[in-house]
Design goal:
Elements: E1 4-12, H1 18-30, E2 34-42, E3 57-60, H2 68-85, E4 90-94, H3 96-105, E5 113-117, H4 128-140, E6 143-146, H5 149-157, E7 166-168, E8 190-194, H6 203-216, E9 221-225, H7 231-240, E10 247-251, H8 257-262, E11 265-268, H9 277-284, E12 289-292, E13 308-311, H10 316-327, H11 330-343, H12 349-360
Parallel strand pairs: 1-2, 1-4, 2-3, 4-5, 5-6, 6-7, 8-9, 8-11, 9-10, 11-12, 12-13
């Protein structure tokens, strides 16, 4: 039986990022059913950062990294040429920019277009340009897939999109994160964060929380994995606050499975999120989580008091107090770890992939 042709449009498949990672995970399932082509609008590096199945075809509309303005003009034309040459059954665009460019390129060609918004509409309403991109894409796309129910509802309430056009499909948990190398240990005082050192990730808040936490319990160890434009700045700030012994910058690591196994709790200090992959990975590993209760994402993974704690937004003092109290309560941590198993079912890759198959093949919700 001939496979349906699926084209996945993404900004740049060669870079590190949440969208790229989720794309690689989903592609491992998609290739079993579809003839998959990835259309990358840019090419920063010579190879993929994440693993992709070998039988996936890749088309670059540009063989270099390009600025957004150039993407809007030239990449739209180049993508349009690709769409005319190939009779794809479905276009799946990942992210706002990819969705917008796909919508423009697809005008008049009218391929079935599924737009996946990997952010949160309510977090960027003040950004007029991004809001315009989202609104136009929402009107042009055949289906709009959100990561959370909050964002799905926002598309209906704010953009007046019909409910039958909308659905929610969360990010999946990779199967490899369902296995622990060692049993969970609630007796440690080890905090883990995996993040990007950029403004929206709240590293400034993390530093305040760490300072207060160390004043309460000088024995805590907080390891932070990741990099980004603000890495060097915060490296100096940690030295200035004399927190080097407690707050340890580990840099970027490609395989984080064992990192989660060593921790006692996971801490997320972002100002805003879509649906954080790092919390899904913590959930899979049975690692209790502490996060600010931001508008979207964390509260769809963390059930407050059951598998983790949700802290009122940006109250760094309360975050530090609650987290250090939790680290001293091994019985509560053990219960929270076990509770994680109850809440991970809807995020399992097999369940998430099944939802994607239905929408790609024009099925119902």
């Amino acid at each position: 039986m001939k496979k349906e042709k699926l084209a996945i449009v993404i900004n740049d498949i060669t870079t590190m990022g949440g969208v790229q990672k989720i794309c690689s995970v989903l592609c491992s399932e998609f290739v079993r059913i579809y003839d998959v082509t990835i259309i990358s609008l840019g090419k920063t590096n010579g190879s993929f950062y994440y693993d992709f199945p070998k039988d996936i075809k890749v088309i670059y509309t540009f063989n270099q990294s390009v600025r957004i303005r150039k993407l809007m003009a030239d990449s739209r034309r180049n993508l349009r040429k690709v769409l005319k040459k190939n009779d794809f059954d479905c276009l799946l665009s990942l992210g706002v920019i990819a969705g917008f460019i796909t919508s423009l390129a697809n005008m008049g060609i009218k391929r079935y277009h599924v737009y996946a918004d990997h952010g949160a509409l309510c977090n960027q309403l003040d950004d007029k340009k991004v809001t315009f991109f989202r609104k136009l894409t929402a009107k042009c796309a055949d289906r709009i897939v959100s990561l959370t129910k909050t964002t799905e509802n926002d598309y209906h309430e704010i953009f007046k999109m019909p409910k039958e056009k909308l659905l929610t499909i969360p990010n999946p948990i990779e199967d490899i994160f369902l296995i622990r190398s060692v049993p969970y240990n609630p007796m440690g005082e080890k905090i883990l964060s995996v993040t990007r050192f950029s403004e929206e990730k709240g590293i400034d808040l993390l530093l305040k929380i760490a300072k207060k936490s160390v004043s309460i319990n000088p024995d805590i160890e907080w390891k932070i994995y990741g990099d980004g434009p603000e890495f060097d700045y915060y490296k100096e700030q940690i030295k200035k606050e004399k927190l080097e012994k407690n707050l340890i910058l580990m840099g970027a690591v490609s395989d984080l499975r064992s990192v989660y196994d060593e921790a006692t709790v996971f801490a997320l200090t972002s100002y805003r999120e879509g649906l954080p992959v790092v919390l899904l990975e913590s959930l899979a590993k049975g690692l209790p989580m502490v996060s600010f209760d931001v508008k979207t994402g964390a509260n769809e993974i963390i059930k407050d008091g059951e598998n983790g704690l949700l802290i009122p937004c940006y109250d760094t003092e309360l975050f530090a107090v609650k987290m250090t109290e939790l680290l001293k309560d091994s019985k509560r941590l053990e219960i929270m770890s076990k509770k994680c198993s109850e809440y991970k079912q809807e995020f399992l890759l097999s369940n998430v992939a099944e939802k994607w198959k239905r929408v790609i093949s024009r099925g119902e919700k």
